[in-house]
Amino acid sequence: MRFGRVLVCAALLTTAARAQPSVPHRVIVDTDFALPPQDDGLALAFALNSPELDIVGITTVAGNYNVARANADVLRLLEIAGRTDVRVYGGARRPLGHEVDEYARTHYGKWWSDEPPPAPPGGFARLALQPEPAADFIARTVTAAPGRIEILAIGPLTNIATAMKGNVAVAKAIKRITIMGGAIASLPDGGGNATPNTEFNFWVDPEAAKIVLRSGTPITLSPLNVSRKTAFDKTAFDRIAMSTTPIARMIADQMGPRYARDATYRPHMYDEVAAASLADPSLVKTRAMIVDVDDHHGIDYGASIGADAVWPGAEGAKRIDVQYDIDNARFMKLFVDRVSTRPHS
Ligand SMILES: [Ca+2]
């Protein structure tokens, strides 16, 4: 009798262990999306084909380009991918506090622009935006299922900060936010890419980044430190280009000329790392750090600073999980496999 009970228990444990990987992350993807696929497009292509991720909605935000272009391009990608079931919610047109100046106009990113979007590959989508604003959708969705919805945040954090500011229950309800953002100067490879010390997403909306990082919501940060250890080389591109799936065809058509011009082209992966680490956390090494953002309008506006203990001025900052290393070969293999394979449904 006792032996039989042990066997039943062992069987239940085995079932539980097997069932674990099949429970997907229910995730809102918040993105400053643009085609031809920049890192947001490649990250979404990966996420749509990953059984570990159940995308409950996509929210757009101004960043790489303006939000009108993000809307047009993400709707088109969903059509190309045959995923018109995924709903898209238009988000913030401008950051919370960042004023447009000469530096913004002359450096990378068109978050400040009001120009109409160009037609995406294949023309504008027939698929339409949802009428609900992005921040309202985020607040409604996470508070309806406390502790169950995650956010993959791969643009400036304006929408998420707006949702948090509008409803104190939001920060507590979000299960975890995985953020591509920041550059941690106290870790290797920690310089910025928007200014000497600031990463682009945090620099576009430093006030929003500070609100989200201080919210108390569990956070995993995928900063430039880890992006810089990745490379999308021609060998990986050629493997995707051999695939006949609609997404792989679009990537091949849009990115092929760049690799044809320069076979040594090997861009870093940014948003793709955040998406892949959510699907398979074993790809990255992570350590806990207190991270805060400088929102003073001085030389380090938007810089993210990380440390093991609170320092003067960072009172109220929270301890979060910071990625600092990645197995690039295994990451790229997973990325290529996912974007070049037709998903099982
Ligand atoms: Ca992005």
Detailed description of the structure:
It is globular and about 55 Å long. A 9-stranded mixed beta sheet has the order 3-2-1-4-5-6-9-7-8, sandwiched between helices. It is built from 14 helices and 9 strands. The model is unreliable at 1-20 (pLDDT under 50). With 345 residues, it is α/β, with parallel strands linked by helices. The protein has helices spanning 2-19, 39-48, 67-80, 102-106, 134-144, 158-166, 169-173, 200-204, 206-213, 224-227, 234-241, 246-261, 271-279, 328-339, and strands at residues 25-31, 53-60, 88-89, 149-154, 176-180, 219-222, 284-293, 304-307, 318-326. The chain is 39% helix and 16% strand. α2 (39-48) runs parallel beside α13 (271-279), α5 (134-144) packs across α6 and α6 (158-166) packs across α9 (206-213). The structure holds calcium ion.
What characteristics describe this protein?
alpha/beta; 345 residues; disordered N terminus; nine-stranded mixed sheet; 14 helices; globular; binds calcium ion
Mean pLDDT rating: 93
| Beta content | 15-25%
**Principal-axes shape call:** globular
Order of helices and strands: HEHEHEHHEHHEHHEHHHHEEEH
Can you list the strand order of the major beta sheet? 3-2-1-4-5-6-9-7-8
Q: How far from one another are the termini?
A: 42 Å
Helical stretch count? 14
Helix/strand-derived class? alpha/beta
Give unreliable regions as ranges: 1-20
- Helical amount among residues, as a percent range? 25-40%
Q: Specify Rg, calculated over alpha carbons.
A: 20 Å
Tally of strands: 9
- What oligomeric state do the depicted chains represent? single chain
Major β-sheet profile:
9 strands, mixed
Chemical compounds bound to the protein: calcium ion
